[in-house]
Amino acid sequence: MHDNLDTLAREQLSHVLRDRPDPASLDAAEDLVGSYGLTSLNKVLFLTSLCKEASVSLTHFSEDDLAGMRTLSDVVAALRPHVTEQGEVR
Amino acid sequence: MESVINHIVADVPRHEGELTVAGIGGTRTVPLATIYQQARSVANGLRDQGIRPGDRVGILAGNSLEWALLDLAGLLLKVQTAGFEPDKFAPAADLLDRYDLTVLYADKVPSDERDPRIRPLSDVGDFADTAASLEPVHYRPDETTTVKFTSGSTGVPKGLEATVGSIDSSLNAVQEIFQHDRGDNLLVFLPLALLQQRYWIYSALRWGHDVTITTYQSAFAVMSAVRPTVVMGVPGFFDAARRYLESQVRAGTDASVAATELMGDRIRYLWTGSAPADPATLRFFNDAGLPMYEGYGLNETCIATKNHPRAHRQGSVGKAMPGKEIIIDDDGVVCVRSDYPVNVAYTYAESGASDKIFLPDGVVRTGDRGHLDSDGYLYIHGRSDDVIVLENGKNVLARPIEERFRHTGAVAECVIFCPKQTELVAVVSPHSEGTDAPAIASALDSVNSESEKDERVARVIVASEPFTTGNGLLTSQFKPIRQRIRERYEDALHDPKEGIRARQP
Questions:
Q1: What backbone phi and psi angles, to 5 degrees, belong to B98?
Q2: A74 lies in some domain
Q3: pLDDT digit string, tens, across residues B371-407
């Protein structure tokens, strides 16, 4: 399940990047804004679509939580407990 | 003309409209009748604090229920409000002194702040329990309720007091063309510090539709759950949505289905203004079944023109709103005459600033160039200060070149300068996903191939980071701030070795 969430997060991030890089090539430790250039709007779009695909409600998080998700690893770590509650990732 | 402001301060609304405050962490919905009662309590609390009619209260905070209550309390008490955008101002004594504020409510007060005039916005929540008893108020059309701020050439924002007549006139005009009614839910995410965003709360109080307040950061996350019928946006927001939806379409989802998943299933129309809309974005949403209506106006004119369901011509910014007249002067500059002007001068501005824009008889000279077609639709060509006069005496309009560059898709924004009066140099904002120098070079060639000789761009400086509101290179409505971009890249603009050079034709 954890591997699925990581894969899903990579796919969704790739979707919002202009050049749609290979999801496997994305570095989970890189800064989403500094390295991947996500604007605040694109970051919310990425998280919105990821939460939808992972069946995790965004209401689990505050705007401050979102601001704290700086890397792909941060995002996966933040979502993981809620994925466990909800069941398997689609 | 019915006074909307006098209507909403007169009595508790007798309809079932609701105000929702939506955030990523959850939503809260309150009947507008309750909002009215809470606002009366807040007004009472302000009065208990010694604030009197004629005083001015500053609000420096992100969008919230307390923001709305404080604004409405100001109307009920004849206390003027002054809304400050959190990213642009700091809660400090000089702000109160500069704009003659009695007090300033802020959502982020520094822990070491000792000025008793600077108070936490959360205090307003305590006022909401104060027993309410207020004298009725009534406004004349020439009285003012608020100060709005607009960027000034000296860097100090100009302050303009808005008349009740102008607010009433604009709200009635919008209602006439869009007929917002029960069942409608208007989504507001731009700062409430901008008076026009508060219009939609006033409209809800008057006409009984719902209104949802959220923040720019949360808007995409809450839209599908809020299910708005109208989204009050700006081009930068809709451009981001389009790019996202296009990625969904590439992945095999139908455009209208993807749009519904993002924005909810009840969209009646999308409102855009404040900056030129990208034709590709207008086309995308219209084709996806979500009509987008572009309009035009400045702080000094309020909403001057607007496309709407019964009068829409793509590429134009619509016809004059009821109560407005568009006049193109001898220089081709768009002037707006209002039956009820926003005002006739700035209250706070550098010397001579008012005389440049406010003309007699309620006319505002916008500084934008444009033309009217035979049916009265207005087309904006560019700002007067966007006109570049070359050494050979030829005038070049920067905006069409900038648009051509943006439309190549290689850059997010483009601003054209002419540092030496001989050649045009572009400063471009890379896409958020990073700089693609070969694509920008190719775009430069493509733009130049479509341009007249004098319009060709000799060099492109790629900005070191995208233009954003955070780094001060975009306005809060996502328009590039030309002067600041020039200052930031002054050295590179004057260094012929800097940037990507165009190939010789």
A1: -65, -40
A2: yes
A3: 999 999 999 987 666 777 666 656 677 888 898 898 8
- Asked whether residue A50 is assigned to any structural domain, the reply reads yes
Tell me if A41 and B431 make a contact (CB, 8 A cut-off). Answer: no
| A44 is a domain residue | yes
Which of A15, A44, A52 best probes binding to B when mutated, by most B CB atoms within 10 angstroms?
A44
Interface confidence (ipTM) of the complex: 0.80
Measure in Å the smallest separation between the Cα of B224 and chain A Cα atoms. Answer: 10
Distance CA B11, CA B30 (A): 17
Alpha helices in B11-163 (DSSP H): 32-48, 65-77, 93-98, 123-127
Q: What range defines the domain where residue A12 resides?
A: 2-18+30-86
Domains and CATH numbers, chain B: 32-163 (3.40.50.980), 297-385 (2.30.38.10), 390-501 (3.30.300.30)
Q: Which helix (H) or strand (E) holds A40?
A: helix A40-53
Q: How far is A1 from chain B (nearest CA, A)?
A: 23
Instruction: Decide if A23 is inside a domain.
Output: no
Write out the residues of chain B at the interface with chain A, using a CB-CB cutoff of 8 A.
23-26, 215-221, 236-237, 240-241, 243-244, 247-248, 251, 261-262, 430-434, 436, 466, 468
Does the beta-carbon distance from A41 to B240 stay under 8 Å? yes
Query: What is the pTM for the complete model shown?
Result: 0.81
Q: What is the pLDDT of residues B208-263, one digit of tens each?
A: 999 999 998 889 999 999 999 999 998 878 988 998 899 889 888 999 999 999 99
Residue A51, domain CATH: 1.10.1200
What are residue B269's DSSP bridge partners?
Answer: B230
Consecutive H or E run containing B426: strand B424-429
Question: From the CA atom positions of chain A, what is the Rg in Å?
Answer: 12
Partner-chain residue, chosen from B240, B262, B434, that has the shortest CB–CB distance to A39: B240
